[in-house]
Structures are given as structure tokens and as C-alpha cells.
Amino acid sequence: MISKEQYGEVEERIMALVDEADPSITPADLLKELSREGISRELGSTIMLEMIGAGYISRQPEDWRLSPKREASSGVGIHIR
Predict the structure, then answer these.
(1) How many whole angstroms separate alpha carbon 22 and alpha carbon 79?
(2) What is the CB neighbour count within 10 angstroms for residue 17?
(3) Is the pTM of this model over 0.85?
(4) 4 Cβ contact partners less than 8 Å away, ≥ 6 residues apart
(5) Average pLDDT estimate for 12-41
(6) CATH number assigned to the domain comprising residue 23
């Protein structure tokens, strides 16, 4: 389990990586970078999918490339303690 603060840090790192990508990043590349930073693929993929569902990042239907969404629909709202 992770704390709310750790969860928020992973969310922030995912947003930073998606924002830094030019023009977008694949989920595999995102998870690879997170793994290099010590974040497990399982945790990274779970939070990434929650962020897509919450509207923080968008996914292209044809190739799954990720890009930032400027207006999030709401917070993820799921935090692990």
C-alpha cells in the first residue's frame, strides 16, 4: 500500500512526463520511464488508467498515445492508504 502523498507524487510525475513528451508518449514508454525512477509498472499503470478515466490525460484511440488534457473532469478520487 502507498500513502496519499506517495500517490500524489506518482500522479505528478506522470503528468510531468506526459507534459514533457513531444507531442505525445506511449503508455509503454511512460511506464518504462517510471520504472527507471523506481515506480513499479503495476502502480504506474493503475494510476495512469485512473488519470485517463478522470480526464487528466487523454488517450488516442488508434495508437493509445497519451497527451495532457488541460481541463480535468474531476480529481481521481481514489487514494490508497
Answers:
(1) 29
(2) 20
(3) no
(4) 79, 80, 81
(5) 95
(6) 1.10.10.10
